[in-house]
Specification:
The chain is of the alpha/beta class and 335 residues long. It is built from twelve helices and ten strands. Helix 2 (76-89) packs parallel to helix 3 (117-131) and helix 4 (150-162) packs across helix 5 (176-188). It binds NADP nicotinamide-adenine-dinucleotide phosphate (NAP).
Length: 335
């Protein structure tokens, strides 16, 4: 049987998605983006990967967040994305904003990790081959490397843009002083930092308390929030135990020991507040992030298109009164 070619939904830009400007740049990103860290690699059926990515694109999610080692196994999320490029997405390349990163362990030996020029250059070449792309839209230094001179890492980013392998660059999870240095170094070379990526959710406000989120805004970089649902904790998934098909049951990056009685109590309080607002806990958690105008995009993960569908409903959320924001802080335990 001949497979009928994929036709994206004609309504994809007219279906509730909003687009936010990334700092002081020309780039707009969807308020919700899709991250391919887990559930998009070789342990997942390709049909499922395709279903989730097409579902997202059909609803205006044009920003896909990858990294060299996403999968699992390492590299296989990019490989699957490359298969999608070949099979269905190539005609829409100019509608897509594709991110990848290097900074964590990827291949053995001294050149497959951290922040050297040697690693970043080789890794991006590998990513482009896997994704069957000529360039990515944004390439990130995935983490600060305290043992490599920061100038070396940043100059590699500058040169990557200059040779056309990435249109923009970003940094992820940099501490405050290193982030400040990076913003200045890149700006002085006319390769501004487009995006700063960090973990931010109702339970973890570190980028706000450390000052790195306001710093990014001050330097004209957009802020991209990852793990907005605390890897699934901030959903209805763990309110009554640990489902067998959940990330926590898999016990790789989300471990059962976070689900203490105190945490369960916090989650139940937050879920009750969400219900009062006519939302799920996931919808309310995402709406809370989107309430902050400094957040350019929220990158959600998902293991089904139904989860993506539910998360998209956060876009239609009513705002929060000051009283509700204070109540959320109290319930989340971050007063
Ligand atoms: N820069 C970095 O260092 C860094 C680090 C981590 C992540 N990221 C990026 O951020 C992306 C998102 O991170 P994340 O996967 O931790 O995000 P997340 O959105 O906090 O967690 C995603 C998980 O939550 C569950 N979930 C999502 N929507 C749900 C819903 N509506 N109802 C019930 N459960 C739901 C699913 O868990 P189940 O699988 O259990 O169903 C899903 O896999 C990654 O894919 C990656 O692109 C970047």
């Amino acid at each position: 049987m001949i497979e009928s070619p994929y036709q994206p939904a004609p309504s994809r830009y007219d279906d509730g998605m909003s687009y936010r400007r990334a700092g002081r740049s020309g780039v707009l990103l969807p308020a919700l983006s899709l991250g391919l860290w887990q559930n998009f690699g070789s342990r997942q059926s390709f049909a499922r990967v395709q279903e989730m990515v097409h579902y997202a694109f059909d609803r205006g999610i044009v920003h896909f967040d990858l990294a060299n080692n996403y999968g699992p196994e390492y590299g296989t999320a990019e490989e699957n994305f490359g298969r999608l490029m070949e099979r269905s997405l190539r005609p829409y390349r100019d509608e897509l904003f594709i991110a990848t990163k290097a900074g964590y362990d990827m291949w053995p030996g001294p050149y497959g990790n951290w922040g050297s020029r040697k690693y970043l250059m080789a890794s991006l070449d590998q990513s482009l081959r896997r994704m069957r792309l000529e360039y990515v839209d944004v390439f990130y230094s995935h983490r600060y490397d305290p043992r490599t001179p920061l100038e070396e890492t940043l100059q590699a980013l500058v040169d990557i843009v200059r040779c056309g392998k990435a249109l923009y660059v970003g940094i992820s999870r940099y501490p405050l002083d290193a982030a400040r240095f990076a913003f200045d170094y890149l700006a002085a070379r006319d390769v501004r930092c487009l995006l700063f990526q960090d973990r931010l959710n109702l339970l973890d406000r570190a980028p706000v308390t450390s000052g790195v989120l306001p710093l990014a805004a001050e330097h004209g970089a957009g802020f991209v929030a990852f793990s907005p649902l605390a890897q699934g904790l901030l959903t209805d998934r763990y309110l009554h135990g640990v489902p067998a098909d959940s990330r926590m049951a898999e016990n790789r990056t989300l471990h059962g020991d976070v689900l203490t009685d105190a945490m369960r109590h916090r989650l139940q309080g937050l879920a009750a507040m969400a219900r009062q607002r006519g939302q799920t806990l996931a919808e309310m958690s995402l709406a809370w992030l989107l309430h902050d105008a400094r957040v350019t995009s929220v990158i959600v993960g998902a293991s089904s298109k139904e989860q993506i569908a539910q998360n998209l409903r956060a876009l239609a959320s009513a705002g929060f009164s000051d009283g509700e924001l204070a109540q959320l802080d109290a319930l989340a335990g971050v007063e």
